[in-house]
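[Solved] Which block belongs to which protein?

Original post:
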Amino acid sequence: MRKHWEVIKKIGQENVAWVYLLGSKLEQGVFIECVDAYDPRYSARQKWVVILSSQKGCPVKCRFCDASFYFRGNLSSEEILEQLDIVLEPHKNGDDCLHSEKIKLHFARMGEPALNPAVLEVLREIPSIYPGINFIPTVATVAPSGTEKWFEELIDIKNIFYSGGRFQLQFSVNSTDEDFRDYLMPVKKWSAQKISQYGHNFFRRGDRKVTLNYALSEGTPFEAGKISGTFDPEVFLVKITPVNPTYQAARAGLQTDLKFDGSYSERLARELDKLQSRGYEVIISIGSLEEIKVGSNCGQLAFYEVKAMESIKSGIQHQDKAV
């Protein structure tokens, strides 16, 4: 019997992704999402992906993310772990997923993980709760200001529980221009220079390189020289992702540079060539169109559920006034 969450909807496609919309049993109008996903390049035995929410909505309010439409606070460690249990449950019959060589456990659905201390609790607890399962936690963060203590604790957790390349840290940088970063992610956050300094403290020989993620829209400032002048290619890699077709991205007029057919602008091609010539590992990461069709972008299901509830509530209030 689950204490915190009720599954409101489960949508998706077999061997692509299942997106769970969860409604709180304890707080009316609180919805979050978690995802059971597959990487089409690999079999489930080779790689499987689980994506969890760390907050009830998100306070960062990125211009391209539908998860930022509301914020109702942090999730407890129990609320986070119950999401994981919900995703794992259909696979407890012994299918390939739980025996996968690599299970990426992303704290990247709804919320900014570095603003929630419970994420650190969960990272400490997972190895003892799920012994023998090859989780590789992945934390995706904009690195909000004031989170230095959280990030210092993360180094200790990584070294104690997830050494030898079993942890992935990803910074959502999204532009090489600090002013444009502030526009895209309107929250006080670390500068590129501070991210670089932290990355050197975080990285040990044998670790996965720290990922610098750029979800680039057309015309977003992106200069190889600024990256190479700030980040060491021995410590950092560069990942390029599309701007997904979300409600917020459309509202902000953000059109993706990297298209879902793998094409991108000549401008971006030139900058990526420069990075590779300077020793950077560059990853082009594109989700499948099938994932987009099943509504797997962060916050979309919760966004439409809350809007539907608001519409119903507004209609009831209108009827009450008319009586």
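(Second protein starts here: sequence line, then its structure tokens.)
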Amino acid sequence: MRPRNSVRRAKKIVRVQSVTSCTRPEFILKPIALPKSSLDNSLLKEAISVNKNRWKANASKKETYKTYMKCFTDGSSNIVVTQNNSPLGSNISYVIGNAQLTVGTELTNIIPMTFPGPEMKMKTCAVVGNSGFLLNSKCGKEIDKSDFIMRCNLPNISKKYSMDVGEKTNLVFVKPSLIVNKYSGLRDSRINFVEDMQNYGSDFLFTAFNHLTHTNLAYKAFYTMDDFATGQSILFLNPNYSRGLRALWNHQGLASKYLSAGLHMTSAALEACEEVHLFGFWPMEMTVQQSYFEQSSQESKVKEVFDLKMEFAHLLRLHTNGIIRLQLGACAV
């Protein structure tokens, strides 16, 4: 029998450092004011207007923003749970609820000593969302030429879509609800899960400690991959990093309790990469379908709790300031 880590209820959760010492860069001081009643139309007009201007990177603003981020997140070495930042005997506080997990030998044996990201010195990173905006975009080649490619929630990257979304993947962010809805919690769909995972790259990032119910699912995924000796790695998102990101975006005016997988990946890319290019981020469903690929009935039933439209508004602001590049149209062939 595999050993179990000790989970207990905590009266107090470790908090992110006080934001009073974190100074917002001047270029994001002004609040984003968009009318809630016509948010889709306002965002659409803004995106069209922004896309008319040639995008240009701003190295100075990018460095200023990265320094601002580190005030909340402690840098890219803190993105995943490692033996360095979560040693044996230490406590991990869940993002949701007041439970804590004491790190035991089981967790220590399945997490890396350090996160390799910072040492990789990645120059160009692509973060690929799943919006139907990608259909007929011809962005596949542009995505695949990036040094590091991140995707969200096990998207379809078959030949059918490769011209628009590319074929390569290095890291996939996986939400536990997918394991429940698509693979029956890995009770009887282990082979299907492993076969599907073979379509992607070497690493997967699971939110094992967002909620108490996520941990067992993430462990099941790890042991399934280990049992089949796939050679792929499952990493666990550090809940301290998630809390730091929530504080960071709240500090910029994004009043949302939860952040999407796309915003998590974009934030991580900003810390670990020199250049960040976003594809498939487009929340206006009045113009395109929600996802570029057909989802199963179980997947489509999952209710999202993120404010994707306001997240997009904030990403647009980073784009106009030359910090990230949002692909707002078809790619040049």
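Accepted answer:
You had them paired correctly. Confirming on the second one: The longest strand covers residues 122-128.
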